[in-house]
Write a structure and sequence with these properties.
The protein is mainly alpha-helical. Helix content is 24%, strand content 6%. Strands 1-2 form a two-stranded antiparallel ribbon. The longest helix is centred in the first third of the chain and has 12 residues. The chain starts with a helix and ends in a 21-residue tail after the last strand.
């Protein structure tokens, strides 16, 4: 396997606080991934929601409301 440094280019520096927040978020991803939207993708990917009405990461089916 190719090392990460050979796969990712760096165009600038990343603030240490931002990098720590990214690391924390990556390590604290909730479990309970949901297979959703299979009709739109064929990879069988698990999905979590970043933003929705309930705040639950496993609440994947989005409900859209049209504004009148």
């Amino acid at each position: 396997m190719t090392s990460l440094t050979q796969q990712v280019a760096c165009t600038g520096t990343i603030d240490a606080n931002v990098l720590e927040r990214v690391r924390h978020e990556t390590l604290t991803i909730p479990d309970g991934w949901v297979a959703q939207y299979g009709e739109y993708q064929s990879g069988g990917w698990g999905t979590l929601s970043l933003l929705n009405a309930t705040g639950a990461a496993t609440e994947v089916p989005f409900r859209f409301r049209l504004r009148s």
